[in-house]
């Protein structure tokens, strides 16, 4: 099956099925989609997603973004508002004190994943993933560009499912292929009335140091990724086993 879904009106829409785990299993197809803005989906694209089995749409954008570029309401999926911003904890201070990255995006990613509000956003995502336990039903999670807020979510999901860091990194960097043309990130992704910090993030190329810094921050402050899931996302070993049972081929 295709990794990149070129549906009319979608930005950076990609399938996460098919990735292998370190213990030889594979993520199921028709279960997990990552994306950028989907406010301009055409009727044909919506028909495709209905047939695909889409049931849950998780929107990481802020209130203003959601109002200006609203997700399309349909009768086959439910939209969950799950803003990652604004950050409310001390994630930025923790990231700054770690001082192990010169990457603009890397510092932001560390701040989000160490911040209480960012953690609550991804906690909701992981709990919704457990609800998606019927065959051929899928979750789509997205932000505006499908690179940063969505990219961090994909990192967490793939890591939780047991995908190796190299594969996770390749999936993250695939965004750069989607944005090979500067014109792709105009319009809703770089609007004068939008949040300028988010505009800057959308215009910044994905880089290897960004994702490495995420792994480093989690390791430094939590000791292991499993500890991060348990302590930051309240996602214990029992829930982790449920997640793997739902999303991995037997």
From TrEMBL:
Gene Ontology molecular function terms on file: phosphoprotein phosphatase activity
Record-annotated membrane-spanning stretches: none
Domain of life: Bacteria
Family: Belongs to the protein-tyrosine phosphatase family.
Name by which UniProt lists this protein: Protein tyrosine phosphatase
Originating organism: Companilactobacillus allii
């Amino acid at each position: 099956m295709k990794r990149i879904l070129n549906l009319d009106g979608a930005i950076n829409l990609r399938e996460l099925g098919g990735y292998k785990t370190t213990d030889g299993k594979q993520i199921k197809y028709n279960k997990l989609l990552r994306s950028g803005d989907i406010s301009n989906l055409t009727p044909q694209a919506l028909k495709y997603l209905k047939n695909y089995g889409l049931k849950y749409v998780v929107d990481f954008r802020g209130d203003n973004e959601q109002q200006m570029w609203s997700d399309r309401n349909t009768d086959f999926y439910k939209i969950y508002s799950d803003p990652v911003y604004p950050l409310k904890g001390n994630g930025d201070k923790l990231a700054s004190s770690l001082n192990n990255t010169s990457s603009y995006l890397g510092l932001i990613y560390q701040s989000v994943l160490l911040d209480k509000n960012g953690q609550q956003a991804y906690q909701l995502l992981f709990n919704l993933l457990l609800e998606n336990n019927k065959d051929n039903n899928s979750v789509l999670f997205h932000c505006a560009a499908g690179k940063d807020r969505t990219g961090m979510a994909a990192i967490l999901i793939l890591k939780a499912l047991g995908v190796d860091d190299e594969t996770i990194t390749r999936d993250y960097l695939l965004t750069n292929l989607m944005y090979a043309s500067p014109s792709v990130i105009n319009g809703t992704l770089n609007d004068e009335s939008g949040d300028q910090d988010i505009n800057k993030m959308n215009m910044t190329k994905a880089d290897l140091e960004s994702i490495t810094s995420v792994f480093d921050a989690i390791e430094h402050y939590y000791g292991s990724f499993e500890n991060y899931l348990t302590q930051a996302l309240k996602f214990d070993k029992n829930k982790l086993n449920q997640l793997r049972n739902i999303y991995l081929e037997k």
